[in-house]
Every structure is written in C-alpha cells, then in structure tokens.
Amino acid sequence: MKRTVYIRFTIILLIVGFMLSVQYNTVQNPETRDTRDIWAIRQELAKETELHSELLSEVRVLEQTIGKYENMVNESPKIALNDTVEQLEREIGLVDVNSPGLMITVEPSLESMIVGQAIEEISPDLLVRLINEINRFKAKAVEVDGKRIIYSSAIRDVNGKTTVNNLAIRHAPFNIKIGTSTYEDAKKMYNQLEASAIGDDFYIDNLRLVIGEPQHSMSISAYDQTVSKQFLQEVPGGE
C-alpha cells in the first residue's frame, strides 16, 4: 500500500517538475517579437515593393524579347540569330554604349597636395570596393580609366601596379564612367554615391571622389580584348 502511494507521489512530482521547467524555459527564452516601429516597417515594405516592381519590369522585358524572337524566327531565322548575337554583345560589353550616366573623378585629396605627401596609386582592393558599390546601384556599364569592365574583368596588383584587364591604371587623377538605363537612374545613383561612405575609404588613402552631375548622354567604350571562351563548346550541326 505504502509502495503504491510512493509511486503515485513520485509521478505527481515528476509532472509538476516538468511543468515548472517548461514555464521557466518560457520565461527565460520568450518568443522574439518584432519591436520595429511603424516607420521602419513601412520602409522595409517600400523596399520590397520596389524590388517587386523591378522584377515585374524585367519579366515584361523578357516576355517582349521572347515574343519578338519567336516572330523573327518564323520570318527569318538568320535575322533572329544576328539580333540575338548583337543583344548578347551589348549585354556582355563588347559594343560601345551611349546612354545616360555620370562620371567619377579619382584625384589626390587637397590635404595631401598642400602638405606635399606622396600620392600612392589606388589599390586593387579599394577599386574593387568602388566597383561593387557602383554595381550595387545597378550600373549598366562601367569604364575605369578607359578600360571597360565586363563579367570577366580582373582587377589585381601586377608588379606593384593596379591593373584592369591586365592594363595599368594611371595615378590619380583618372576618370570612371558609369552608364545607366535612364536619366532618372543616373540621378538616383548620384544621390546614392553622395550618401555612401565609400568616399571615406578613399580619403584614408589620400584620395577623394569627385562625383559629377548626371548626364543625359555619355559614351562608354567597348571591351577591346578577346573574350575567354574556356567553358564554351561548339554544338555539331543538326543537334
């Protein structure tokens, strides 16, 4: 009889202990709540809405391209093929671009010139950070000191010289041209670059960025070297 009572008492204690442990864990680790205010949530929603709009625009452009290509294939496969090749060359960067955009001038900082400090050339890491910042703002085309940046462009240090596409970059000052899809995009990029902290990184290296006003038309040269086809293979005819 006593043994049965002890067993029941033990089971009750186990249940009570389990419930207390669950309650303690809940108090110590409460469910994470979104503590942002309404304006922060509205800003996040605005960003997502803008991204959704951009994706819809891209889908619309692709659908138009597919429809145009299908019509051209029915009329003339050769014309359709040539048109596709030209479009790919534009997207890769193998043709000259004339579009809205802006120009950045990289030049020595005023303080360094006043005190007569030696101006080092821009480092590959700093140039890469600037290009990444530009591409983050959706640049259509970029040219650094007359050298077109494409998907395979390499920015590296070669014998103490910063190079783009294996060609050395001049000491400051030199220009960086940025092409955009529309003039509105150029104005937006201008404002974004002005507000960016990338200029502080240049100042540390005794350089400064002079961001030019948006332009309605800017000429950007084509990539003038051989494009690597290492991973491309020709498909035999009829396949």
Explain briefly what this protein structure is.
The chain has 239 residues and is an alpha+beta fold. 50% of the residues lie in helices and 19% in strands.
Question: SSE layout and pairings?
Answer:
Elements: H1 2-28, H2 38-75, H3 77-92, E1 97-108, H4 110-115, H5 124-136, E2 141-144, E3 147-149, E4 155-158, E5 161-164, E6 167-168, E7 174-179, H6 183-195, H7 198-204, E8 207-211, E9 215-220
Antiparallel strand pairs: 1-7, 1-8, 1-9, 2-3, 2-7, 4-5, 5-6
Account of the protein in words:
The protein is an alpha+beta fold. The protein folds into two domains: 40-92; 97-220, Protein of unknown function DUF881 (Alpha-Beta Plaits), CATH 3.30.70. Helix content is 50%, strand content 19%. It has seven helices and nine strands. The chain has helices at residues 2-28, 38-75, 77-92, 110-115, 124-136, 183-195, 198-204; strands at residues 97-108, 141-144, 147-149, 155-158, 161-164, 167-168, 174-179, 207-211, 215-220. The strands form two sheets. Strands 1, 2, 3, 7, 8 and 9 form a six-stranded antiparallel beta sheet that branches. It has a three-stranded antiparallel beta sheet with strand order 4-5-6, covered by helices on one side. The termini are far apart. The mean pLDDT is 81.
